[in-house]
Amino acid sequence: MVKSSVLGYPRIGADREWKKALEAYWAGKIDNEAFESQLQEIRLNHLRKQQAKGIDYIPVNDFSYYDHILDTATMFGLIPERFAYEGGKVPLSVYYGIARGTRDAAASEMTKWFNTNYHYIVPELSGLTPVLTENKPLVAYQEAKEKLGIEGKPVLVGPLTFVKLSKGYSASETGTWINRLLPLYVQIVQELQQEGVQWVQIDEPILVTQLSDEDLQHLRTIYETLHASAPTINIMLQTYFEAVERYQDIVALPVQGIGLDFVHGRPGNQQSLQSFAFPQDKVLGAGIIDGRGIWRSSLQEKLDLLNELSAIVSPDRLIIQSSCSLLHVPVTTDRETKLTSELKNALAFADEKLDELVLLTQALTSGIGAIATQLYTSARAILALHQSNERNRSDVQQAVEKLRVQEPVRSVPFAQRHLAQQDKWQLPLLPTTTIGSFPQSAEVRKARQSWRKGEWNQERYTDFIHQHIDTWIGLQEEIGLDVLVHGEFERTDMVEFFGEKLAGFAFTQNGWVQSYGSRCVKPPVIFGDVAFDGNMTVEETVYAQSQTKKPVKGMLTGPITIMNWSFVRDDIPREHIAYQLAYALRQEVEALEQAGIGMIQVDEPAVREGLPLKVNEQEAYLAWAVKAFKITTCTVQETTQIHTHMCYCEFHDMIGSIEAMDADVISIETSRSHGELIHSFELNTYKLGIGLGVYDIHSPRVPSVKEMTDMIQRALRVLPAQLFWINPDCGLKTRGYDETVASLQNMVEATRLARNTY
Ligand code: GLN
Ligand code: ZN
C-alpha cells in the first residue's frame, strides 16, 4: 500500500504564535514554564493537524526552539567555549546565547540553508568534544505517542551534512569529526530502535552538492555503521532541493529508504532512476509535492509522474511525500480573505499540501475515481489562473521577448562614460555617498501606518515625508557628503514597496515563512506578468533634488533581488520573470532620468541568493541575472551614472559577473570580510567605479576616523583612487540618528585626510 509522508512542518504557527512565544520569552514576559507549555501546545497542534488530515508518516523532532542545526549542535554538546556551559542538558539561556549572543559572548554565525531563504546557525567545532546531552528525537517520538497516539517518524540531520555545514576544522579533519559523532548517532538510533520506532528520517541534503570520493567513503562508513548497530530500524536517507550526485553509490547504501526530490531535482533524479533502476530492497520516498513553492499542484500531472515512477518502483515500495520540509512555505491559505478567488484557489500552503499528499495516496490505493472531483477542481483552478488577464499581458510578453534575444549594452563603454561623467559631475577624488536609507525612526513607521490605514490623507503624509527629506538633505550637506540620497522614508521594505506599485504582484495577509530564528518574512507573490504601472520613486527623488545643488542619487531595487525575495509563479522560467521585472524597472530608470535625476542606483543585494546549487548551472544563472540588470540600466545617456549595491559579498568567485553588470559604480559590504575582499582585488583587477564599505552599519558603534582611514588606505593599495568611492557598508535604516550623523562625519573626515595624501 502506498503511504504518505511529510518531511517537516512549519514551526511558526498559523498566527505566528511560535514567534510571539519566543519573543515574549526573550523579553522576560513569560517564564520558562509558561514558555515550554506554549511551545508544546504549538508542537502538538501541528501533529494533530497532520494526524487529522491522514498523513501516514508524521515527522517528529522537526520542531525547534530556534533552528534545527542549532538543535543538533546542542544535542551533541557542541557549545563554543565562550558560552558558560557546564555539561548536561543544554539550558535555554545557553541555547539562545549561541543564537543571539549574550552580553559577554558574540552569537554564532548564521548562514543560508542551501539555496533557500532560511538561515541556520553555523556550528563551531573547534576545540570541542561531542557528547550526547539528550536524545531529542526520542523525546519527540515519545511525546507524540503518549499525547496523541501518533507513531511518529523522528527526523535528524545526518552526520555528513552536519559536519560539512559546520566550521572550526580543516577539510582533512572531516573524517575525524564524523568518527567522533558517529557513536552518538549510533546511540540515538539504537535507543529509537529499542523504543519501537519504525522509520527514522535522516536528512542528508548535502548529497545534492558535489561530492568527493572521500565524502562517499564517509557516507558508506556512516550508514554501514548505523545499519550494523541498529539493524531493525528503517532508515529513510532523505535528500532534497536538487537531484543527488552519485545516484548509484547512494542507492547502494545499506538503508531501507531513499528520499529523492522530484520537483526541484527533476529531471536529474528521474533520469537516474530510469537509467540505473532502483534497488528492489528499498523504499522510494518520492518527493512530488513542492515543499518550497506556494502553488497548487496539478493532481493529474502528479499522477502521471507517479505512474512513471511506479513503472520502476512497485507501489508497495513507494511513499508519496513533500519534496522537502514544509518549513519553507506559509501555513495555510485559509485565512487569506483579500486575494482574488482566482489567485487563492491556485495556491497551496503547508496545510493544503497535506491534502494533496493524501489525495494522491488515495488515488494510488483506491483508483483515481476516488479523487475525481478533486482532480477536476485542481485542474480548473490552475487553468483559471493560467487564463487570467494578469498572466496574459501580450504587451509585456512581446516587449520582453524582444529584449530576451538582444544583448543589452550601454551606448558607450565604461572608459568613455567615466570621462563624460567626470566632466559633468565634477566630483572630488574619492567621492563620498551613502547606500540609500536613513534611520527609520518609530515616528516614520507610525506615519506610514497612519497613512496606510487612511487616518492620514495623502497630503499630510507627503508633507511628513518631505519634511524628513528636508532634514536629511540638510544634514548630508552639513556633513559634507558629495552624492546625496533622499533617505527612503516612504519605503517599508525594499521589495514590498516596488511590488505594491507594479502589476503582477499580490500580497498575502498571513503568508509568513521563517527566515531565521523568530524572524519571519512575508514575501510578495509574483503571480502574473510584471508590468510598469506608473512612476514609483520619481516624486520623492525629484523633491529631494529640488532641495539641493548636489546630485541626488535615485534609488531602486533590482530585478533579481525582487525576484529572489518573492514567491514566483512556476509556469514560466525564472529567467523570464527576471526580464519582465527588468523591463518594468527600466521604465522607472528612464522616468527618473527624464525628470532630471542623473545618478541612479539599482540595488542587487540578493543576486547570490538565487545561485543554483549545481555548480554547472551557476554560470547560466549569473549570465541571465547580469542581463536582467543590464536591461534595467542600459538605455540611459552616457553621462547618467548607474550605481549598484550588494551585501554580504562572497565576492571573489563572482567578480567577473559583477564586472559584467557594467555599473558605473558599485558599493559593496565589506566589514565582515574585508581582508578576503582586498585579497580578491589583489588577484583580479576591477575596472569600474567601486566603493568598499568603510564601516559596519550592523553595529551602533561609531567608528573612529582612524579606523576608516586605515580601511581606505588598505583598499587604495589594490584599487585605483580615481575609481574609488567612500561609503558605509549598507543602508542606515536600522541605525539611530545620533550614531548615523557621528559616523558619517567621521567618514567624511577620514576621506578628507585620505584626499590630502594624494
Ligand atoms: N538602498 C537600500 C538601503 O539603503 C539597500 C538595502 C540593502 O542593501 N539590503 O536600505
Ligand atoms: Zn546592503
Automatic annotation (TrEMBL):
The active site is at H698. L-methionine binds at I435, G436, S437, E488, D603. Binds 1 zinc ion per subunit. GO terms for biological process: methylation. 5-methyltetrahydropteroyltri-L-glutamate binds at R16, E17, W18, K19, K112, R519, C520, W565, E609. Residues 430-752 form the Cobalamin-independent methionine synthase MetE C-terminal/archaeal domain. Its cofactor is Zn(2+). InterPro entries: Cbl-indep_Met_Synth_N, Cobalamin-indep_Met_synthase, Met_Synth_C/arc, UROD/MetE-like_sf. It is an enzyme of class 2 (transferase). Keywords: Amino-acid biosynthesis, Metal-binding, Methionine biosynthesis, Methyltransferase, Repeat, Transferase, Zinc. Signal peptide: none annotated. It catalyses: 5-methyltetrahydropteroyltri-L-glutamate + L-homocysteine = tetrahydropteroyltri-L-glutamate + L-methionine. Pathway: Amino-acid biosynthesis; L-methionine biosynthesis via de novo pathway; L-methionine from L-homocysteine (MetE route): step 1/1. GO terms for molecular function: 5-methyltetrahydropteroyltriglutamate-homocysteine S-methyltransferase activity. Pfam families: Meth_synt_1, Meth_synt_2. L-homocysteine binds at I435, G436, S437, E488, D603. Gene3D superfamilies: 3.20.20.210. Belongs to the vitamin-B12 independent methionine synthase family. This is 5-methyltetrahydropteroyltriglutamate--homocysteine methyltransferase. It comes from Paenibacillus tundrae. The lineage of its organism: Bacteria, Bacillati, Bacillota, Bacilli, Bacillales. The gene is metE.
